[in-house]
Write a structure and sequence with these properties.
Layout: H1 10-20, H2 39-47, H3 54-57, H4 73-77, H5 83-89, H6 95-118, H7 146-158, H8 163-176
Length: 184
Amino acid sequence: MLLPTPGPGPDAAVAFVRAHLTDLCSDQPAASPAVRGGQTAADVALGGLDLAGYAAQRNQVLPVERRGATRLSPYIRYGLIDLPTVWSAASDAPPRDRTKFRDELAWQEYARHVYARLGRRMSTALRAAPARPSGSWDNPWPRDMRCVDACLDELETDGWLVNQTRMWMSSQWTVRALGGVDQR
């Protein structure tokens, strides 16, 4: 079945989701104030790539205005920008920033190759399983933890997290909360 193409702009995309995809939503569809979808937005984001200071600021979480994230990951993730194109776009960056940025791209490429080889087997340890606590949390996303609450607010509002908070939330889910599954 071919779905109709939504018109331009975030309001048209939200209307499209409401009209055609509401059964896939657990809440009311809303456009992200932080990330715009589509090839045009991806091209604009890539065209505005400025890596000056990236190496020093890429892990900055707060204050938000000091974050060094490129915000390209949603476009890379959904195939709107490929890794070789992003690699080339970094060619004029300051050397330290270019190297760090390209290191991150190389990790993405590596992970894709590992996934292509292992597929779903990636959900099990490649060598030794990490140590696990004896039980899981009843609520893997405790809102009374301010850091979890702030990350979830940003994820629910923007649909995106900077690398450092994505890694922290992944650790919360897989290590501390055991994927939300009681292991006892």
